[in-house]
Amino acid sequence: MFDFLIDGFGVALTPLNLGLALLGALLGTLFGALPGIGPINGIAILMPLAYTLGLPAESSLILLAAVYTGAEYGGRMSSILLNVPGDAGAVMTTLDGYPLAQKGLAGPALGLSAVSSFIGATIAIIGLTLFAPLLANVAVMFGPAEFFALMIFAFSSMSVMMGKDPIKTAIGAVLGVLIGTVGIDSGSGVLRYTLGMPELYDGIDFVVMIIGLFAISEILLMLENSHSTDNDGELPPLGRVFVSLKEVLACKGAIIRSGLIGFIIGVLPGTGASVAGAVSYTTEKRLSDKDNTFGTGDMRGLAAPESANNAAAVGSFVPMLTLGIPGSGTTAVLLGALMLYNITPGPMMFTERPEVAGGLIASLYIGNIVLLMLNLPLAGVFARVLTIPRWVLVPAIAILAFVGVYQLHSDLFAIYLMLVIGVFGYLLRKLGFSLAPVILGYVLGGLMEQNLRRALSISGGDVGILWQSGISLGLWVAAVLLLVLPWLIPKLLAARKLSAG
Predict the structure, then answer these.
(1) Tens-digit pLDDT profile for residues 270-288
(2) Least confident of 56-60, 67-71, 238-242
(3) What residue stretches are annotated with the DUF112 domain (predicted)?
């Protein structure tokens, strides 16, 4: 059953891949530490470079996965030291992390968050090892109709669980679907939204899309805030960085519970680390906060979201590797990396490309240990990254973005298109939209259309095939419950309270 993991360690322990895991962990921690950069921007910038350097698929994936998990570690630094989340997954970390820093406990807070991240990620990696092959065996039974129902379920969970505003999340997903339809319709040959430009006949390239949407829009935001002093403030003194065993043991329940919650939420398509952090924090507050100390610098309030967001990051690999659908915005970008190598993620990946699936999972074990070893003694060094001025960051990101796109396409139109998409992403962010639903809609929309066409082709146009099997029917019911229950349950509770009163 675990032959793929043994083969995977054989791949991950080669000198090249060990070096890439270390490099990815280091870069990921730096990307995560810089407010606004985060894992998606980091992976979007490095992905075309890894491809054009000629790295094998498994090596590229090991590098990018290490960036992803490293960014989840690094995101805590600006949250704790500056009260500015490094990425969406670290938002809840600010609630107790920053008050701890104000109490002179910045060092122990960074140490505890590193240990919590390590334990949460370890729980999720073990879950990934155990459940991914089992889910892959179930996924073999999926046909086009079941995959179409799964996409509906993914869109439902995304609109309900991602972000504070479900309407904006849904609009973002629809925009992503519309962008994904640009180009020649493969079924009928009809041109869709090409504006008469032959360069758009093949659709909008994935790399151009993600670099424009994330990296260019981030550059524009940095330029807009170039006179802000948020990043130029003095860092609080760190003091001791190593957290005591007593402090860790006091948080053990919060860490383990949140790790399990984070893994389960991460497995759900379209959710991600930010949802896991919020759910774990509110759950822990309800269970443990007897003295109402959460939000004032409680170690458990810091440990819970840190354990959960790292567990969710790893958990989001489960649907990507087994079903071929992204569990989060970042894994949507990783999915694009596999497509660059003409690898189709899905249930057959464990048997047809075990070196990629096994190598990735084995590298997560190694990368997690590397990250703990880097983050405990070097927390003070990484913290200095927060003082890098924007006049250094902006040109560096811009050069990497332009070089990455031009190396892949050797075409100025791709550069212009990237800039247009960047301005579009900037406007969306200014209007309060999250970009993760847009990229998920772009990826999931194409897959949904393909599977709908195949299913209707098999049935001769009979739409009944979409809910004929038990699997697809169950997914349809789950999707409807996800949409209805959050609206229905508060009304039922209010009615019950009214009748009791």
Answers:
(1) 666 777 887 888 888 888 8
(2) 238-242
(3) 18-440
The count of other CB atoms within 10 Å of the CB of residue 384 is 11
Return d(Cα 118, Cα 126) in angstroms, integer: 12
* Cα 307 from Cα 262, distance rounded (Å): 7
Q: What is the H or E stretch that residue 423 is in?
A: helix 412-430
**420, 212 contact by CB (below 8 A):** yes
Instruction: Report how far residue 266's alpha carbon sits from residue 120's, in angstroms, rounded to the nearest whole number.
Output: 12
| Location of structure tokens 């050797």 | 410
| Cα angle: 204, vertex 177, 171; to 5 degrees | 125
pTM > 0.85: no
Report the C-alpha gap between 461 and 453 in whole angstroms: 9
Could you tell me what percent of the chain has a pLDDT over 90?
12
* Cα→Cα distances 326→178, 268, 295, 443, Å: 18, 9, 33, 8
C-alpha to C-alpha distances, 316 to 225, 269, 328, 370, 460, nearest whole angstrom = 32, 7, 6, 21, 35
**Pairwise CA distance, residues 372 & 366, whole Å:** 10
Distances (CA, A) of 497 to 273, 397, 488, 490, 500: 33, 54, 14, 10, 5
Q: Which 3 state secondary structure label does DSSP give 367?
A: helix
- The candidate with the shortest Cα–Cα distance to 37, out of 5, 7, 77, is 77
* DSSP one-letter string for 2-27: -HHHHHHHHHHTSHHHHHHHHHHHHH
Number of DSSP helices (H) and strands (E) in the chain, helices first? 23, 2
The pLDDT of residue 256 is: 93
Tokens 């349809």 identify what position? 476
**Which are the contacts of 180, defined by CB distance < 8 A and separation ≥ 6?**
203, 204, 441, 442, 443, 445, 446, 449
Contact 87, 75 (CB under 8 A): yes
